[in-house]
């Protein structure tokens, strides 16, 4: 449904996308995760035909960004900060969008009614938008995208401005869309917990490049296996001795590890299976004031994915950087 190959996009000197590639199967719900400036919005602008790539190819539901309006017939884009004429009711907003999108008059009322139910606004349909909460406005925005029955729905940071109740209500809307339609959904977010709640798969974008992809469960499993060991050698000599010993201890570990000095502390990122060996090696080699072992959560898994460009096999979300499809 979505095929992006080796795409670059720059704004003057700023490279927003730098050889990104990914593909998404029909009906999948995929999280697009990235720090500020990672390139998420730029990617969405290409997917909805508001911009064209400088290089590489983008195909969405069989269309390309150069086809602008024809592409937008198939793609619904919900921006982070949608706003509507406050004097209209929710129903009037949806009817207007249905008319603008060419939904035939006979179908319009029923289509709008269904969408109101899907976005949880049936009871508020005849209230003016000026009285809507942020969460209701956001759900109405999703509704405006749904009236045209898009093949692909793009949600750009859909809960960024919402309180916890608004977040949960929006999440239920996404659940209903998944249950009732075969729409392919891409949700951009800073928050891995949200991606975990909504999506079975995730693409991690950083510096305009796809750094990791796979199931949220795989990323979480990676996180569960990773620990951070903090060693406090008694002095500089001890720190150097411990550093060398620890480096040797993690050299044969089942996954990559790293040793870093932070002030007087040695910080070791490693697989949990070698945490004991790391501490033992450091204590054999040097005097320590103490040590701690910490297990990172999902957010750290995301950060680790960005740092390490870790790749996880997943057939439904195939991504590469500047190379062939995985
Ligand atoms: N119109 C523009 N002109 C110049 N630079 C831009 C423009 N739009 C985006 N950029 C830059 O391109 C890079 C990617 O921006 P983009 O908005 O795609 O990232 P993002 O992941 O959506 O970030 P955020 O989460 O902050 O919205 C950033 O360095 C940004 O400053």
UniProtKB/TrEMBL annotation:
Q: Which UniProt keywords are listed? A: ATP-binding, Nucleotide-binding, Transport
Tell me where in this chain the ABC transporter domain is found. Answer: 2-232
Q: Which domain of life is it from?
A: Archaea
Q: Which GO terms describe its molecular function?
A: ATP binding
Sequence similarity: Belongs to the ABC transporter superfamily.
User: What is the protein's given name?
Assistant: ABC transporter ATP-binding protein
Taxonomy of origin reads: Archaea, Methanobacteriati, Methanobacteriota, Stenosarchaea group, Halobacteria
């Amino acid at each position: 449904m979505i095929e992006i190959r080796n795409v670059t996009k720059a704004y003057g000197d700023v490279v927003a996308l730098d050889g990104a590639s990914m593909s998404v199967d029909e009906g999948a719900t995929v999280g697009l995760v990235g720090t500020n400036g990672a390139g998420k919005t730029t990617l969405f602008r290409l997917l909805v035909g508001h911009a064209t790539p400088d290089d590489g190819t983008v195909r969405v539901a069989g269309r390309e960004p150069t086809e602008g309006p024809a592409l937008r017939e198939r793609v619904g884009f919900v921006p982070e900060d949608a706003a509507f004429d406050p004097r209209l009711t929710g129903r009037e907003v949806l009817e207007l969008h249905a008319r603008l999108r060419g939904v035939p008059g006979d179908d319009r009322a029923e289509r709008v009614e269904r969408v109101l139910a899907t976005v949880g606004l049936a009871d508020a349909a005849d209230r003016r938008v000026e009285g809507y909460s942020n969460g209701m406005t956001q759900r109405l925005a999703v509704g405006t995208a749904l009236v045209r029955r898009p093949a692909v729905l793009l949600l750009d940071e859909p809960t960024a401005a919402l309180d916890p109740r608004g977040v949960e209500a929006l999440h239920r809307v996404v659940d209903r869309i998944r249950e009732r339609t075969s729409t392919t959904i891409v949700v951009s977010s800073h928050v891995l917990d949200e991606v975990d709640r909504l999506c079975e798969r995730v693409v991690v974008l950083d510096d305009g490049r796809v750094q990791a992809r796979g199931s949220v469960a795989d990323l979480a499993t990676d996180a569960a296996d990773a620990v951070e060991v903090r060693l406090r050698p008694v002095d500089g000599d001890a720190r150097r001795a411990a550093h060398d010993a620890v480096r040797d201890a993690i050299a044969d570990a089942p996954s990559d590890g790293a040793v870093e000095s932070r002030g007087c502390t040695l910080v070791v990122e490693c697989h949990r299976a070698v945490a004991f060996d790391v501490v033992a090696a450091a204590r054999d080699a040097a005097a320590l004031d103490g040590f701690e072992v910490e297990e990172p959560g999902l957010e750290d898994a995301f950060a680790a994915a960005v740092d390490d460009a870790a790749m996880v096999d997943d057939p439904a979300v195939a991504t590469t950087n500047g190379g062939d499809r995985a």
